[in-house]
Design goal:
By secondary structure, this protein is α+β, with helices and mostly antiparallel strands. It has 7 helices and 10 strands. β9 and β10 form a beta hairpin.
Length: 313
């Protein structure tokens, strides 16, 4: 018995109702065309395929990174031995300094670097071909996809920390240097971190001294002329000596005397270092307590730009 059928409903009508129940696509409770089910199935199929591809790419990426890390770690000890061998002579140490400009961040100058090398070179002479430790030695290695950091303690307790980063390439031009970004030493009982802080402070003092000397030179015409003649890179922004003198004279009323220490009088020296196909670029900027900002730009050790502007603090 069909409860919702009327008394006058004929056989044909009942059969049509039964047929409607047998064909879901024609029933009112499911009016969605069958083709949409197929499209939805294909969509889920593509989603699963996409998820599978992403997962495989992630696994492949992880394998590549792990392989790179292992490769960099294997290179650590040969690199330590090679650097140590070069440090055994003054000529080799100077060559290392010249070919790795990033070392300048940790030492006031080449002679400062060489004096530290002379103090510690014998502790790392004749390192074995096989990776330590020998009795009393310690080797610690940290690696990442483009670099390694090795800390080696010699048999007499002296520490050496060496950081090497793969020299990047911009276009077809390799950036300057062999990739050694840090080389510091610590005596027995000393701290590598303390040595690094002292070295960086010495370098900071050197930068500030040079920055301040240039600012003092701007205070007189003779000083400005001497600065222009000593820094030919300034010709890029000041084609003639007179152009530079005109700017220096305009700056003088606003150019304050800089303190002996950059941390005095509420001033602050900012340093930005970056590399380009032309080599290492540095920007030094000092903002005085009156809000004037003196900026000096250096390229491969040469002063190439000077400016003085008002800035909000």
């Amino acid at each position: 018995m069909i409860p919702f059928a009327s008394p006058n409903l004929g056989r044909t009508d009942v059969r049509s109702i039964v047929m409607s129940k047998r064909t879901p696509q024609d029933a009112s409770w499911n009016s969605e065309p069958a083709s949409s089910f197929k499209r939805r199935g294909r969509a889920w199929g593509w989603l699963w395929k996409t998820a599978l591809v992403v997962g495989l790419l992630g696994i492949s990426g992880a394998i590549i990174v792990i392989t790179q890390l292992e490769s960099m770690s294997r290179k650590a000890w040969p690199a330590v031995r090679q650097v140590s061998a070069r440090l055994q002579t003054d000529e080799g140490a100077r060559d290392l300094w010249a070919k790795n400009p990033e070392l300048q961040q940790g030492y006031p100058d080449q002679e400062g670097f060489l004096s530290q090398v002379k103090l510690h070179r014998t502790a790392f002479a004749n390192l074995p071909a096989l990776e330590p430790p020998r009795d009393g030695e310690t080797l610690q290695i940290e690696s990442w996809p483009i670099g390694i950091m090795a800390r080696l303690k010699s048999q007499d307790g002296t520490w050496m920390q060496l950081t090497i980063e793969r020299v990047p390439v911009v276009g077809d031009v390799a950036q300057q240097g062999e990739g050694i970004t840090e080389l510091v030493f610590a005596d027995r009982g000393g701290s590598l971190e303390e040595s690094r802080r002292e070295a960086r402070q010495a370098q900071s003092n050197r930068r500030w001294s040079r920055f301040r000397e240039n600012a003092v030179a701007l205070q007189t015409d003779d000083g400005a002329k001497s600065l222009y003649q000593a820094q030919p890179g300034l010709k890029k922004h000041f084609p003639t000596e007179n152009d530079f003198l005109v700017k220096a004279r305009a700056w003088r009323p606003q150019l304050e005397s800089l303190p002996e220490d950059s941390r005095e009088d509420g001033g602050h020296l900012q340093l930005h270092i970056y590399t380009s196909p032309l080599g290492e670029q540095q920007e030094l900027a000092y903002t005085t307590k009156s809000g004037m900002r003196l900026r000096q730009n250096w390229s491969n050790g040469q002063l190439v730009e000077l400016s003085l502007d008002a800035t909000s603090r």
